[in-house]
Every structure is written in C-alpha cells, then in structure tokens.
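Tokens help. Our protein:
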Amino acid sequence: MKNNRKTLIGNLLKKCNMRKMLVLFSLFFVENAFTQAVQTEKHKFVLVIHGGAGTILKSQMTPEREKAYTDGLNEALEKGAAVLKNGGSALDAVEASVKTLEDNPLFNAGKGAVFTNDGKNELDAAIMNGKTLEAGSVAGVKTIKNPVSAARAVMEKSAHVMMTGNGADQFAKEQGIEMVDPSYFYTEERWKGLQQSKQEDSIKMQRDKTDTMKKIGLKQPGNKDYKYGTVGAVALDQHGNLAAATSTGGMTNKKFGRVGDAPIIGAGTYANNKTVAISGTGWGEYFIRLVMAKTISDMMEFGNMKLKPAADEMIMKRLPALGGDGGLIAVDKDGNIAMPFCTEGMYRGYIKQGGKKMVEIYK
C-alpha cells in the first residue's frame, strides 16, 4: 500500500515538473524569439550619402556624365554597405564611403577639390561618433589624401576636436595617414572654375563700392557647382549606433583661409545616438549661422519633432529665409531617412539592409 502511494506521488511530481519545464521552456522560447525580432527590426542598417547640392540640371548633363556621377555614388554606397553588412560600425562605414568620394575627381573633396583664390587646394573634413559624441575635424589642409581619415585620427588619437592648416597636416603625417603632393588634387575642370570665378570677381570690382556693400551676403554669380560639391555620409549600424562624416574642398576662389560648415561640429556634421546623424552641403556660412545639424537634433530631442519635419523646417524654410541654400542627408536612431534640399539638385543615395538602394541627382 505504501509502495503504491509512493509510486503515485512520484508520478504526480514528475508530471508536475514536466509541465513546469514545458511552460518554462515555452516562455523562454517565446521571449527569446520576441527579443530577437525586436533587435532585428531595431538594428537594420542604413547608409545615406551625398555628393553636393547646387544648380544641377538634367538639361545641362550629358548621359555619359550623368552615368559617371551615378556610378560614383553607387561605388561609395557599396563600399560603406560592405562594412555594415558584415556587422561593422557606422563609423567605419561613413569613413569608407567618404574616402571613396574623396578619391573621385567628380566631387569637390579630396581629388578634384576646388581652388582657392591663390590657386591652391585647402581641404576640410569632419567625422562624429553618435555613441560617444566624440568628434574630430581638420580644416585648411593641403597634403592629406583623405582628410576624413585625418579627422578620425584627430578624434581618436588626440585630445582635440579640430586641427587646422600646417599643424593638421603635420599631425596626420605623424599618425601614418597617407600624404600626397599638392599637385595630386589638381583637375582641369576645377582650375577652369577658378578662372571663371576670378573673371566674375573682376566684373564685380568695377561696380560702385556702395552698391557692392549693399550686396554683401548675396549669392556669388556663376555656376554653383563650382562652389558646392561637398561629400558626406551618415549611417546606422546593426548595433544601433549612428555616425556622420563630411568632406569638402570648400568654395571656389575662397580667400583669407575661409572655412565653411563641413568641419564645424553641429553645423555641417553631427551625430547623436539619441536622435540623428547629419551631413550637410551648400552655402556653409548659413549652415554655421543656423548651427544646422545640431538644431535639427535639438528639435528632435527637446521638441519631440520627427526627423522629416525638423529637417524640412531648417532646409526648406529657415535656410532660404536668410538667403542661403543647400541640402543635407540624415538618418535617425530608428532608421528613418531625410534628404531635403532647396537647390535644383543634390547628388544623393541610400542603401538599407535587405538590399533596397536608391541613387538620385535631380528634384
């Protein structure tokens, strides 16, 4: 009798334990599957690039030149996407994309940068890590093949955020960054652009001085493509981190060591995991005055605005209201994209996890 009771109790306990185990296993399986699904959705990578904004009209573009720009943008997307596909960081991805554009003479950055008034190339670049808010930039450098890599070296290997001129060149050389002779940056097209801009300046100098003073702050005449052509990239990686990078040769015929918005953190370049990663292109003086990139981030963080309305407010309203123009690319912490511009065109493109890709030039 006692043995039968023991057997019965033992069987009941086994059944209870088995049920508990099944319930616990089921709960674990469901929770794990849910967590993986959420993480997969949250951390799908996104990469967005630009090659400058300005007067870019299809009527003035040959099929061959259009294809060259499209191919250049696609190459930059593929280089950055290859990093992200393998689980790499947003920081590595934006650097890879921007380096590709710096090496392409079609764009105003690195090889193919525009010339200053005295016939030299002065390059600016910046990069920012949205996870840590670390940032680095260089301005007015003359012998660094890929200024974006020098900007990253400033961020990671120095106690500073920005370095300029000869000091930045020297620092980059000491860090093993590839250096080149200044002649490397020369392209015939950019040299002709300088001559055209100088000719226009000569015409302006003949105007009445009072009239000239009244026009301070207005757009310079001529082809805006001679001035605009900054390149940039923003990315969200599979770990949920954001990064942004921008590089430029600045404005054709610039004088007195002029520096635009590209290397100014918060103006032309910004990244914050709480909000957004942004790279701008256009008339830099106005991007600086508006603190363009950081203002959009603040609108999102403190004003609870979504990315698109915040970016549109700044680029489509506040920028032209002051007399400036240009555009930007952005990706927020949830992978949403914005690419507003108030010019005739902007070289731009994006690629998302799963293979969705787009490259566009015109409105």
Observations:
- Residues 2-42 form the longest helix (41 residues).
- The chain has two domains: 1-42, 44-362.
- Residues 1-42 form one domain.
